[in-house]
Amino acid sequence: MRLLRTLVVALLLGVGGASAQTVLVHPFDSEGTLLGSVVADRIAEGLEGRVDLVVPPAAAPSLVPPTPYGDGFVNPLAVLETGGV
After folding, report:
1. Sorting pLDDT into bands at 50, 70 and 90, what band is 66?
2. CA distance 49 to 11
3. Alpha carbon distances (Å) from 31 to 2, 25, 34, 66, 80
4. What is the DSSP string of 34-84?
5. d(Cα 50, Cα 63) in Å, to the nearest integer?
6. Any residues with CB less than 8 A from the CB of 34 and at least 6 apart, and which?
7. Smallest Cα–Cα separation from 37: which of 54, 57, 9?
8. Best CA proximity match to 51, nearest among 73, 77, 25
9. Contact 61, 76 (CB under 8 A)
10. Residue 1: CA atoms inside 13 Å, Cβ hemisphere, count?
11. Max CA distance (Å), the chain
12. Would you give the end-to-end CA distance of the chain in angstroms?
């Protein structure tokens, strides 16, 4: 849980200085299905005033499905050139 808090704070601080961004928030992997979705939904709500568009956890997997890699996931948008979406 401490790692999750650290990641959320880093994300919020990093997004605060960004401009014209779209953020997709995927549900977190957790032991209980509901917990991961609730945490992701709260993060999406917290980002609403800081970025141009926030895609909530209910719609994010449909737009950009998570790609499993090793023990985690890779964002497929990360392979694009800077500024390309």
Report:
1. confident
2. 14
3. 16, 18, 9, 18, 32
4. HHHHHHHHHHHHHHTTTSSEEE-TTTHHHHS--EEETTEEE-GGGGSPTT-
5. 21
6. none
7. 57
8. 25
9. no
10. 3
11. 36
12. 31
Mean of the per-residue pLDDT values of the chain: 74
Secondary element (H or E) of residue 22: strand 22-24
Question: Hey, what are 60's tokens?
Answer: 């994010």
What mean pLDDT comes out for the span 43-52? 87
The residues with which 22 forms a beta bridge, in sequence order, are 53
Does this model's pTM top 0.85? My answer is no
Q: Which residue has the tokens 């704070």?
A: 9
Question: What single letter denotes the amino acid at residue 66?
Answer: P
Which tokens in the block code for residue 54? 């926030």
